[in-house]
Input
Amino acid sequence: MKPKTIASCRIVVLGVLIFVSFTVAWAEEMTLPREKLIALFPNAQNFKERKADLPPEKVTSIEEDIGTKLQPDTLKPTFYIAYKDNKPMGLALFLSVKGPNGAISGGVGLDMTGKVVKVEVHKHNEAVGIADETFLKQFSEKGVEDKFKIGEDIEPVAGEQAASQAVALMPKKTLAISYALFLKRPDPPEEDVAETYEPEDLKEVMMMMKDEYDLIRAYFQSGKNSDKATAIKAAKQLQKYTRFIADFEPPKNPNDTEGYTYFQKKFDDAIREFAQRLETEGISETTQKQWREIVELVNTTHLRFSVEEIDLDEDLN
Ligand code: HEM
Output
C-alpha cells in the first residue's frame, strides 16, 4: 500500500480567536495600570482593557490544569491587550496567588503565540529573591505545554521552595485561563511521513511526490481558498521528498551525476520559493508562473533521466 502523506507543520494561531470568547465590550473610559503594563510590554504603544467571565465548565477545566482551586477574584479576569502599530502584541493579566506568608501579587504577559513574555512580582511578604529577575526570567518563553514545576523546569530561589512554586503558579494560571477563554491549544503533532520515511526506490519517491503534486494542481484548478492550506503543505512536503532523490541513481543517464544534482538543487530551490509565496499570496500571477516553471523543470528532468515517458497530469490511481 502506498504510504499516506501526512503534513506536520502547525502554528498556534491566536490572532482572530483572541476576541471570540470575550463577553464584555470595550470599556469606554479606563484607568489602566499603565506602569505595570509597560513593565511587561515596553514596546507597546497602547493597551485596551477587556473583562471576561469564566463559565463554570471552564473553571473546572482550569482547576484541573493548574491542580488547585481558582480564587474567587480570578473568576472574572480583566485582561489587557497590548498593541503596537494597531496590531495586538500580546496580553497581560494581573493576579495574586497564595504564598507561605500571605498573598503574592504580580503580572504576567503572554505573546500572540501563547508564550510567556515576562512575569513580574509586585507585592509579597517572602524573601526578596522571588521578585528578582534572575528567578523570574526562567518563565519567559514557556508555554501551556510546560510544567512550571519547581525542581523540574523551574529552579527555585534558594531556600524558598514554597514561595517559588507559588510564583510559578502565576504564569501557569494565566496560561490556563487564557487558553480556556481564547487561545487555541496546539494540535497534537501529526506524524510526518517524510521524517521517518525510508523509500525502497526512486519510483516510490516519485509516487509520493505525485500525490503532493496532484494536491497543488487541484488548488490551481479549483482556485478554492479551502484548498490553499493543503496546497501549501503539499509544496513543503514536495521539498522534503526532494532529499531522497539523491539516494538513487536515475535509470537513464546514470553517469550524468552533475546534471542530476543540478536538477535536484534547482527543483529544491524553486519549490521552496514557491511554497513561501503560496503562503503569502495564494494564487497570484507570480505563483502561477512559478508553478508553470516548476512543471517545465520537472518535465525536462524526466526527459533526461527517465526511460519511461511521464505525463505529470496523468492520474496514477
Ligand atoms: C513535482 C515533482 C515531481 C513529480 C510529481 C514527479 C513524478 C514522477 C512520476 C509519476 C514518475 C513515474 C514513476 C513510475 O514510473 O512509477 C517519475 C519518475 C522519475 N522521476 Fe520524477 N517527479 C517529480 C520530480 C522529479 C525530480 C525533481 C527529479 C530529479 C531531479 C525526478 C526524477 C525522476 C526519475 C529519474 C524518474 C524515473 C524513475 C524510474 O523509472 O526508476 N523527478 N517522477
